[in-house]
Amino acid sequence: MDEIQKRIDEIKGKLNLDKIRKEIQVIEADSGKPEFWLDTQLAAGKMQQLADLNKTLEEIDKLEEMAKMGTNRDLEKKLAQIELKTFLSGKYDELPVIFSIHAGQGGTEAMDWAEMLKRMYLRFFEKKGWVYEMVEETPGEEAGVKSITFLVNGRYAYGYLKYEAGTHRLVRQSPFNADKLRQTSFALVEVLPQVAQATGVEVKEEDLETQFFHSSSHGGQNVQKVSTAVRIRHKPTGLVVACQTQRFQEQNRKIALDILKAKLWEIEEKRRLEEERKLKGGRTKASWGTQIRSYVLHPYKMVKDLRTDFETSNPEAVLNGQLDGFIEAEIRQLS
Question: Which domains are present in the chain?
Answer without folding.
Answer: 2-85 (1.20.58.410), 97-194+290-334 (3.30.70.1660), 205-280 (3.30.160.20)
